[in-house]
Amino acid sequence: xxxxxxxxxxxxxxxxxxxxxxxxxxxxxxxxxxxxxxxxxxxxxxxxxxxxxxxxxxxxxxxxxxxxxxxxxxxxxxxxxxxxxxxxxxxxxxxxxxxxxxxxxxxxxxxxxxxxxxxxxxxxxxxxxxxxxxxxxxxxxxxxxxxxxxxxxxxxxxxxxxxxxxxxxxxxxxxxxxxxxxxxxxxxxxxxxxxxxxxxxxxxxxxxxxxxxxxxxxxxxxxxxxxxxxxxxxxxxxxxxxxxxxxxxxxxxxxxxxxxxxxxxxxxxxxxxxxxxxxxxxxxxxxxxxxxxxxxxxxxxxxxxxxxxxxxxxxxxxxxxxxxxxxxxxxxxxxxxxxxxxxxxxxxxxxxxxxxxxxxxxxxxxxxxxxxxxxxxxxxxxxxxxxxxxxxxxxxxxxxxxxxxxxxxxxxxxxxxxxxxxxxxxxxxxxxxxxxxxxxxxxxxxxxxxxxxxxxxxxxxxxxxxxxxxxxxxxxxxxxxxxxxxxxxxxxxxxxxxxxxxxxxxxxxxxxxxxxxxxxxxxxxxxxxxxxxxxxxxxxxxxxxxxxxxxxxxxxxxxxxxxxxxxxxxxxxxxxxxxxxxxxxxxxxxxxxxxxxxxxxxxxxxxxxxxxxxxxxxxxxxxxxxxxxxxxxxxxxxxxxxxxxxx
Length: 647
Description:
This protein is of the alpha/beta class. 53% of the residues lie in helices and 19% in strands. The strands form four sheets. An eight-stranded mixed barrel has the order 12-13-15-16-17-18-19-20, surrounded by five helices. It has a five-stranded mixed beta sheet with strand order 6-7-5-10-11, sandwiched between helices. Strands 2-1-4-3 form a four-stranded antiparallel beta sheet, covered by helices on one side. It is elongated and about 170 Å long.
């Protein structure tokens, strides 16, 4: 970093005074010179005018009396004046006298003319004119004298300003020396400031600076002590924070970060993740205080179980999740036995809260290799819960990791498709069996990938539910379907899950779109019965609200779940869509024919329309008609298309 060149304040002051003073003097000189020149010139004009006025009456009388000799004598006397260069007398526009001095020709350029009108005595009648050529030499002499005096004054002032500036510079010299001393000032370096004996402002400044130095030195020493104290405190806090970073506050066990730190040092180990099943219910029923108490007691019992094994360390990963980290890998069967034995031991554990007895169960996921152990054990744990097993060891042959990677890839594809507007509805017609004409269309979701291939929801819909993208897909389908059918004279249906119906944001979005596009009297909402309609009040409220707007309701996949007829009685629906599992072998399966016949008969009694889904051949189509199903939908009649078709 370059240091700035030192600039003297005293020099600046001296130069400023000199510059300002000189500028003022020059301005005053220019202004006064101009004024004086005009004044001197006016004086010379007045002199010439006075001479002309003096001789004017004499010449006028002589002209009137026609005494030209007298006029000539007067002119000769006047021409002797060194300032008069020429005289001219004109009588009635006729030159009667004219005389020039010896200097006339040389001074003519530096002269001026004064003219006087000659009038008849005691009258205003003009009888002639007097012209006087007057020299400027007197004016120039005055100007020269004035200039010399002014220059002398300027020189004198300049000298005085220089002397004054040098005096000011001398007065400021102590400040300049003090500033040079302060330039290299350091807290640990004591500088002795001179001039403290002077009885003026310089002395006051010097004394003040010396006192300030002493105070700064004292403060610096105090600050050093404070800094040392703070450094010690920071070190203490750092150790404390490190302990907090790696130790779980509730149980006192090493935490997740501790395991990450430790697992990097293990060359050949293994890992078990222990998850308490349904621990949320304990918190909800007994409260979080009881839950925390059980967690502490559980961690203490785990410590007791493994306290004698120096190669196993217990960790708490999260709320209801613990880990056993093996610094040395035991034989595989022993590793499995440890997991299974732990499950048995936990099932025997009893915990008490007030007068209540609480038992817990655990699910364990294991990884028998240290590389990627946490991820693999976690995958095994999730897979065990999914398969309702108490213990599962990660195995490459299970392709669990591949399934997770595949799901993640589908999540990426879904997000990309949403961003690029490549989620679209395809339309499958539903035919009226009495007329064989299209009665309505079902709007079915499709994903168009980067190769423009049309992807069925079979591959991505369940993943969308897990990744919280399902509501976004529902909104896209609602909006695009409403836009498409806004000006088409067809009814159309959209699938809704119970999850959609319970989502207030989705419901408000649906209401907004059907009202914006004016399709309320043509839209049909198909509610999936196969999901299990348990939230009757919410679902019933949604159906009532939609029907008040003019919409219609269908129960989809009817026959695949439980309490189906109870649903029909409780929910005010308009259509029953018979599940495909009952339709696919309808031409051969007598049981299916009986069930479908029962559904149709029951529906007609309730004045509901029935729709047969997944009709894939002529025989089934004929059987559907034979059983008096009202409408048919399936690949036999038409596949889903990206646009509607004509009847």
